[in-house]
Amino acid sequence: MFKKFVACLSALALVLGISTVSFAAEPSNAEDFPQAMTSEEIEEFLKTATPVPIPEPTVQAFSLSAHNGSYSHDIETGTTVFEPFDFISSRSAGQESPGYFPNGYTLVPESRGIVGDDNRVKVSNTAVGPWCNTVKLLIVAGNGNNYIGSGFMIGPNSVATSGHCVYSASSGGWAQSITVIPALNGSSQPYGSASAYNLVCGGNWQSSHDNQDDWGVIRINANLGNSTGWLGLRWQSASYNGESVNAVGYPQEDGNYMYYGPGTVTSSSDRTLAGNWDLTGGQSGGPVHKYYSSTGYTAIGINRGGSSSYSDCLRIDEWIYNKFMSYRSLSY
């Protein structure tokens, strides 16, 4: 009944043009959630951390080769295995899946961004949707360097991100460790944090640095997604051109705070969406999402890179959609 009430209020807000409607407050007791790192340890980590190196942004990179499964890396054992994935046999019903918003959500104004004029907005209350399922990543790369990135929950203990956040040939291969902090807001960890135990990336990203397969998944040692919820997922073959979106993540300039950049999709290819939202280092791996009445706030892309003339994201196509959906029911 409460969910129906929330849905009715959301619909009413849209009809009346209300830009923000909040249905939940901070978690009642943040100490109930696990902490992989204390605020002091995070501060020490960030003294030497830089944004994870990103691939060169481009609308048409390399040839559009077929998805070639994925590679899965066990951090504890150091074992890497190839995982073929037949999305035909794993196909989910339809082309969209609703998000899970146990904390309600705040409706975001559909304003538009302009590349060249930074109009990103700091999120004041990260503990509600659609923000609380976006995470900050503290990454110790294969070569020992400290990096920062972003991601978003797609299941109880699964985080979607960019492939270059989990595997980077130029930084020593697979990450040694990744700490995942949902909804980090200054020194506040409203849902605690967790550590990665398994990393997954696109097969073509690991084998040939193909940024058209630059996606990753982080499995963590706590079911934080049950508390944060997760975004809806969507793929479509039609163009997204002209549609308003928000690119979310943790930029290096103010790294303990979440920002979103509103913008418009101006170019749609099979694997890439480009537009005029603002994006800087540290936001790699965060979601590009859009509101749909059927699914709530819904991820359609993954932040990848940017330039002075446009920002781009890896488009969630049918294959990636079904791959991400395969993590919905997995838990720690």
TrEMBL record:
The keyword Protease applies. It comes from the Bacteria. Gene3D superfamilies: Trypsin-like serine proteases (2.40.10.10). Keywords: Hydrolase, Protease, Serine protease, Signal. InterPro entries: Glutamyl_endopeptidase (IPR050966), Peptidase_S1_PA (IPR009003), Peptidase_S1_PA_chymotrypsin (IPR043504), Peptidase_S1B (IPR008256). Its EC number is 3.4.21.-. Residues 1-24 form the signal peptide. The keyword Hydrolase applies. It is an enzyme of class 3 (hydrolase). Belongs to the peptidase S1B family. This is Serine protease. It comes from Allofournierella massiliensis.
